[in-house]
Write a structure and sequence with these properties.
It contains 14 helices and 16 strands. With 415 residues, the chain is of the alpha+beta class. It has two domains: 265 residues, Bira Bifunctional Protein, Domain 2 (BirA Bifunctional Protein, domain 2); 79 residues, Anticodon-binding domain (Rossmann fold). Bound molecules: adenosine monophosphate. Adenosine monophosphate binds next to strand 6, strand 10, strand 11 and helix 11.
């Protein structure tokens, strides 16, 4: 016998019983975003590789290690989208959206692809809901976006959510700060852990996360990026914080928050869910004022976020936040062998009238069919006997009455 196929590593099937929680995440996001003026956009699953190389940043892990890149029959290099922002910005430019009233607010959801090491909550194909507002540098936008994400998570009932907030300032201020931090760490090199010392050139910010006592002492007095922002960036960040305070959003300032994409400037944020363990990030985003220009457009500010649908679904499945049990609905038509044709005709008539309906397709006896009606959660079982006679049984109360199958749609539609 040949070997059975399995899903590719790091991917998974979403089975029917796993859909309701995911559909609820998508429905709540859609309703809240559209009520806030975000229009629904869909972009292709694959794009020119260069879009991501330039948009996400050549030096990022995503571009260097995680992209699913392939050559098509015409020799073009294409990549399965690893994130949404670059695609949305491409669409903004391609469709001349800079001529519309600004900011242009867009949202989408769908699958994204990164070649990461698979583990619980980290997959190679995953689902995001994404929101972007392009064309305004007002701190109102940063605050609106964070509020929307926060309210979506609250309405969904995700518990133990923490919001971390930081500001990266401009790329120039950030580079100057990193040089200063490296110099500071070098001047205290003797007290740092081996790990921090070996990564000092590549990633000096890592030192802020260290558990090593000596390193922690050194870091207590280290300069932070938030202290080195240009005055306008510092003011912008203060405005964002004041707006969040005013709207009751709690956050922790995190001066070491850096995100895995190069395009961020000014505000950055991440939502974590403590019950999820190692892969606790359930969403994140920030401002990307240089990105559109980097993609060949005019200088245009933008801000966006992505929520991780798979991880939010995990958090909701773990917690007590499950929705109420589905009420029974529809009709299961129970029929003997000689009445099966009539059963299908009746089911079709019910379905055409918008009433959920089903019938036995496995040759069960009457008793087995009644069991099946119960198992699938039908509100009624309709037992077909003679031509113009049938018994309608309420599966909740057990109450039965005689009905005429020819007028069943009317019987069920009238209250
Ligand atoms: P990012 O685009 O990296 O900012 O990710 C935004 C959110 O998408 C994260 O907070 C996660 O919830 C989710 N996410 C990112 N990468 C993955 C992945 N490989 N598997 C599952 N979820 C992911």
């Amino acid at each position: 016998m040949s070997e059975r196929f399995k899903v590719p590593r790091g991917t998974f099937d979403v089975l029917p019983e796993q859909q309701p929680v995911r559909e609820r995440i998508q429905a709540v996001s859609r309703r809240r975003l559209e009520a806030a003026g975000y229009g629904h956009i869909d972009t292709p699953i694959f794009e020119d590789t260069d879009l991501f190389a330039r948009g996400v940043g050549e030096s990022t892990d995503i571009v260097q290690k995680q992209m699913f890149t392939f050559e098509d029959q015409g020799g073009r290099s294409l990549t399965l989208r690893p994130e949404a922002t670059a695609s949305v910005c491409r669409a903004y430019l391609e469709h001349g959206m800079q001529k519309l009233a600004q900011p242009v607010k867009l949202w989408m959801d769908g699958s994204f692809f990164r070649h990461e090491r698979p583990q619980a909550g980290r997959y190679r194909q995953f689902t995001q809901v994404d929101a972007e507002a392009i064309g305004s540098d007002s701190p109102l936008i940063d605050a609106e976006m964070i509020l929307l994400a926060s309210d979506i998570l609250i309405e969904l009932g995700v518990e133990g959510v923490r919001l971390r907030l930081g500001s990266l300032g401009t790329p120039a201020a950030r580079a100057a700060y990193l040089d200063e931090l490296r110099d500071y760490l070098r001047s205290h090199e003797g007290r740092l852990s081996d790990d921090v010392r070996s990564r000092l050139d590549v990633n000096p910010l890592r030192a802020f996360d260290a558990d090593h006592p000596g390193t922690r002492e050194v870091m207590a007095d280290a300069p932070t990026l938030l202290d080195r922002l240009d005055p306008e960036d510092a003011e912008h960040f203060a405005d964002v914080r004041a707006l969040l305070d005013r709207n009751g959003v709690a956050y922790d300032l995190d001066p070491t928050l850096v995100r895995g994409l190069d395009y961020y400037t000014r505000t950055v944020f991440e939502f974590d869910c403590e019950s999820l363990g190692a892969q606790s990030g359930i969403g994140g985003g920030g401002r990307y004022d240089g990105l559109i220009e980097q993609l060949g457009g005019p200088p245009t500010p933008g801000c966006g976020w992505a929520l991780g649908v798979d991880r939010i679904a995990l958090a909701l499945a773990d917690g007590a936040a499950r929705g109420p049990e589905e009420p029974r609905q529809g009709v299961f038509v129970v029929a003997g062998d000689d009445r099966r044709d009539a059963a299908l005709a009746l089911v079709t008539e019910l379905r055409r009238a918008g009433i959920p309906a089903d019938l036995d397709l496995a040759g069960r006896g009457t008793k087995g069919q009644m069991k099946q009606a119960d198992r699938i959660g039908a509100h009624y079982a309709l037992i077909l006997s003679e031509e113009a006679k049938a018994t309608l049984r309420d599966m909740d109360s057990g109450e039965e009455r005689q009905v005429d199958p020819a007028t069943l749609v009317e019987t069920l539609s009238s209250p």
